[in-house]
Design brief:
By secondary structure, the protein is of the alpha/beta class. It is built from nine helices and 36 strands. A ten-stranded parallel beta sheet has the order 1-2-5-8-11-14-17-20-23-26, with no helix packed on it. Strands 3-6-9-12-15-18-21-24-27 form a nine-stranded parallel beta sheet. A nine-stranded parallel beta sheet has the order 4-7-10-13-16-19-22-25-28. The termini are far apart. GO terms for molecular function: lyase activity; metal ion binding.
């Protein structure tokens, strides 16, 4: 019987492995929407960006442009060994590169910003981009640069996560004529207004379309228009389906700053747009006492006009007494004047649909819940001074930046980056060792049973289907898998008693009477708090512009090391017994 039993167990094990192999693995644990199944550079090669300078031909070894040219035809993951700003000097960075992961979370220190040119990944498929800032700006601080901060058209199966886009003289981002895509937890802000564009003043947020496209938990702020501009049905986006959920729109400059969705193809095409549980907050550029609309349904004059776009609106909220009726009935915020102008018989019911089926729905909160969550988590981390200022302005309903050349004064609508303080210096610190240059820090490899001199073990697979390289990269983003150790970065933990007080940093922390909330008091701004268990595994990771408490209800009783990091990158640790 034993041989038979062994054979049976072996067959079952093989079947289990085969079923596991057939189960798709998301791009990363928090990926959602139509682009969540992108695999990027999974299982492929790794290239390190070690320098910030750039040349138009991409011949500088270690530069980002050079990295994108390596290992042609193979899956590729790009990691960063430096932080700082990459200046493209007016030369757009164009790369038609499929099966690609750009892991901005690997930058040691303040992170990466790309300026001075458009990053264009047009024609690329199966792409993952995370934790980057792209702020085009002006050449030499004065001259117009065409194009979006990031554009990806005529591609598909991609996800853009936790990126910050701003200061483009065109729209900040352009994603359309694609299939199966997600843009999540990103910022599109401060499009440049009077910046030398040949068509005149702009300040545009983004153009977002696509066949099966998800846009969720993003922040659009300080844009006059295209906030966003939805795409249209075209020969490439013949049947457009956009799921626009839990986004925050602040300080737009027009009543109809959000618009689009034309059905250009008529009977040959279709447009379906979900507008669900989004939060609109008027600001100084268009005050809340004036009526806003949720969206203007645009009409294509040359189309077969008896075919309408289809809109589903529910759960959206606009601040301001003038918008109370729209909050009661969202369809009162669907502007259809363009349709009525050409088709006088058009009514809201002509475009309204009660439900639009979405194959890859996202985790959805109420508009108010999403507003709070977006402000806590959106954008590239660690946040630079640009995003910290922006988030504070959204919270307080203010705008500090002032325009140089036009009538928008102290409203958040700007003409050039220097109007908003310019580019902050991004420092490099917490540099890790990676002996075999496989993208994984040596300390993490040692803690998880890998060989820090063997680059091939990066592609070993977890039971969830991720490579060990991906498990490490996801851990840097605060996404942890059971069975892996996420240790402190090559440092010795110094224990301190609880309650804890550090007179040098002026930080004190203690558990409240419930024993489930840690209260933090500090003269410095604490922006990151991480808890590690006795094995060095991260059990909780919280980031915010200024942390004053952390909910530990989900943390079991036990012994922990708590790490505090301030806005000046000072780090202090304490011993906590819960």
């Amino acid at each position: 019987m034993k041989p038979l039993l062994l054979y049976f167990l072996t067959v079952c094990s093989l079947l289990s492995c085969e079923l596991a192999a057939q189960t798709p693995t998301p791009a990363f644990p928090t990926a959602e929407g139509f682009g969540k199944w992108a695999t990027g550079g999974r299982g492929g090669q790794v290239v390190e960006v070690t320098r910030l300078d750039d040349d138009e031909l991409g011949n500088l070894e270690g530069s980002l442009r050079w990295a994108l040219k390596q290992h042609s035809g193979q899956p590729l993951t790009i990691v960063f060994r430096t932080s700082g700003t990459i200046d493209l000097n007016g030369h757009d960075l164009r790369s038609k590169r499929s099966n690609l992961t750009i892991a901005g979370q690997t930058a040691p220190g303040d992170g990466i910003c790309i300026k001075g040119g458009n990053v264009n990944l047009g024609g690329s498929y199966n792409v993952i981009v995370r934790f980057l800032r792209m702020r085009v700006g002006l050449r030499n601080g004065t001259d117009f640069i065409p194009g979006a901060s990031l554009s990806l058209e005529n591609g598909g199966n991609f996800i853009i996560d936790h990126c910050s886009f701003s200061w483009s003289a065109e729209e900040n981002t352009g994603f359309y004529d694609n299939t199966h895509s997600t843009v999540q937890w990103c910022i599109a802000s401060e499009g440049l207004y009077n910046a030398g564009h040949g068509k005149g003043a702009r300040s545009y947020g983004s153009v977002w379309g696509g066949r099966k496209a998800t846009y969720h938990h993003n922040l659009l702020a300080h844009n006059v228009s295209r906030s966003p501009r939805f795409g249209t049905s075209t020969k490439n986006d013949r049947h457009m389906l956009v799921d626009y959920v839990n986004n925050v729109n602040y300080n737009y400059g027009r009543q109809n700053a959000c618009y689009g969705g034309e059905n250009e193809l008529g009977a040959a095409g279709s447009v379906h747009i979900n507008l669900v549980n989004n939060y609109y907050k008027p600001g100084p550029a268009y005050p809340g006492e004036r009526r806003s609309n949720l969206v203007r349904a645009s009409y294509e004059v040359g189309a077969q006009h008896h075919y309408f776009s289809h809109w589903h609106l529910s759960g959206n909220y606009i601040e301001g007494e003038a918008n109370a009726s729209i909050n009661e009935d969202n369809y009162l915020g669907l502007e259809i004047e363009e349709y009525v102008e050409h088709l006088p018989s058009t009514t809201i019911d002509s475009l309204k649909v009660d439900h639009i089926a979405v194959e890859e729905p996202v985790s959805t909160q109420t508009a108010h819940e999403a507003y709070a969550q977006v402000l806590e988590q959106v954008g590239a981390f660690p946040r630079d001074s640009v995003d910290r200022r922006l988030i504070e302005e959204v919270r307080t309903g203010t705008a500090v930046a002032s325009s140089s050349f036009n009538a928008y004064r102290v409203t958040g609508i700007i003409d050039k980056p220097s109007d908003a303080g310019g580019y902050p210096v991004l420092h490099t610190y917490h540099v890790v060792n990676d002996t075999d240059h496989d993208g994984i820090a040596d300390y993490w490899e040692r803690a998880n049973g890998l060989d820090a001199t063997d680059a091939e073990d990066r592609n070993r697979r977890s039971t969830e289907g991720y490579t060990y390289l991906e498990v490490y990269l996801n851990g840097l983003a605060g996404e942890y898998l059971d069975g892996f150790v996420y240790p402190l970065i090559d440092t010795v933990v110094t224990n301190s008693p609880t309650p804890f007080h550090d007179p040098a940093l002026h930080i004190s922390a203690y558990l409240d009477q419930s024993g489930h909330r840690m209260v933090v008091k500090s003269q410095a701004r604490v922006q990151t708090i991480t808890l590690f268990d006795e094995l060095g595994r991260r059990v909780k990771h919280v980031t915010a512009p200024a942390l004053t408490s952390v909910n530990l209800m989900d943390v079991p009783s036990g012994w922990y090391v708590v790490q505090f990091e301030t806005d000046t990158h000072s780090i202090q640790r304490m011993r906590l017994v819960k």
